[in-house]
Amino acid sequence: MSIKPLNGEGYMVDVRPQGRQGRRIRKKFKTKAEAQQFERWIIATQNNKDWVAKPADQRALTELIELWFQHHGQNLKDGLKTVHKLRLMAAKMGDPKASQITKASFSDYRVLRLAEGKKAKTINLDQEKLGAVFSVLIELGHYHGEHPLKEMKKIKLPAQEMGFLTREEINSLLARLEGDQLKAVKLCLATGARWGEVVKLRREEVIGNKVTYLNTKNNKNRTVPISTELCAQITDSIQNDRLFANLNYRYIRDRIKEIAPNLPAGQAVHVLRHTFASHFMMNGGNILALQRILGHSSILQTMAYAHFAPDYLQDAVKFNPLIGNNNHE
After folding, report:
1. How far apart are CA 294 and CA 275, in angstroms?
2. In the annotation, is 217 catalytic?
3. How far apart are CA 164 and CA 67, in angstroms?
4. Has keyword Iron (predicted)?
5. Which 3-state string (H, E, C) describes the chain?
6. Is 36 exposed, middle or buried (0-12, 13-18, 19+ CB in 10 A)?
């Protein structure tokens, strides 16, 4: 098996993937890189002798990452950010060959990252990203080995505490704000929007007392109605372009910490979204409606707020199958 240069006219792949007595395959390519990629593909896929071990994939992890980015990642909303993290991950792992990536080797990587002080949630996200590289390449026919992380369990995380502001804290926060800061916070509390969605909101996305958030975290648009009064407040004198030109994340975060210093770590301004959802359920809102308002792709995400419903547990008494059958006790 070999790749032969053709005196400046490209390269010839000349292989017999099934051995000396097997079928000979020859194909010409303009570049050596294309020829090498074809040779690897032939070796990995054209051996029909299932009892003979197929050659291990000798490509480096970085090569697989670049292949993933070329065929899939560059089309993702956060593709550049993701590929950057994958490259850092590969460097941290020593840029192993594909055949060297196993559950055991990734377990060693997790131990290393934990020792460096990284949170388990961050390491689980690393596992998701690397697993997605193999899943995509397998689906597209660019990787022919077994998925090395398939069925590997993630680090189990404790249930995250859900913080929210009380009515008194909400009033105190609003009293400390003015201008765009006040309007933006009100909109978060009225629609459950993420701070980043409100920051980039434009005038043309608020029509008829409805706010439409575009290009959201899950790449879906969603529309949420607001009151006539709030609509007038946030659009007053704004003809086009961004609704809130003078927002300061750190200022809002510091005001929230002043009125609610004991919120769970890491929630900060995101607590406005939790506050909307929590009060929505406490006031009798429907969990399915909340899912649509928040833009959750799965009801399981929204169920984190279900316990705020005033009759959440009482429904077990009201609607269990023994109701109406007491005479059989």
Report:
1. 12
2. yes
3. 43
4. no
5. CEEEECCCCCEEEEECCCCCCCCCEEEEECCHHHHHHHHHHHHHHCCCCCCCCCCCCCCEHHHHHHHHHHHCHHHCCCHHHHHHHHHHHHHHCCCCEHHHCCHHHHHHHHHHHHHCCCCHHHHHHHHHHHHHHHHHHHHCCCCCCCCCCCCCCCCCCCCCCCCCCCHHHHHHHHHCCCHHHHHHHHHHHHHCCCHHHHHCCEHHHEECCEEEECCCCCCCCEEEECCHHHHHHHHCCCCCCECCCCCCHHHHHHHHHHHCCCCCCCCHHHHHHHHHHHHHHHCCCCHHHHHHHHCCCCHHHHHHHHHHCCCCCCHHHHCCCCCCCHHHC
6. middle
- Spatial separation of the C-alpha atoms in residues 224 and 320, rounded to whole Å: 34
Residue whose C-alpha is closest to residue 157's, from 116, 129, 117, 123: 123
Active site residue 274: no
Q: Is 143 a catalytic residue?
A: no
Of 147, 154, 202, 296, the active-site residue reads 296
Residue 305's identity, in one-letter code, is Y
Segment 298-323, tens digit of pLDDT: 898 888 888 888 776 666 666 666 66
Q: pTM (2 decimals)?
A: 0.63
Name the band, by pLDDT with cuts 50, 70 and 90, for residue 223.
Answer: very high
Tell me the CA end-to-end span of the chain in Å, nearest whole number.
80
The one catalytic residue among 194, 255, 274, 279 = 194
- Clarify whether 194 is annotated catalytic: yes
User: Is 270 a known active-site residue?
Assistant: yes
Give CA 125 to chain center in angstroms. 8
- Choose among 17, 290, 11, 263: nearest CA to 161: 263
Catalytic, 142? Answer no
Catalytic residue among 110, 183, 273, 274: 273
- In the set 129, 217, 242, 253, the catalytic residue is 217
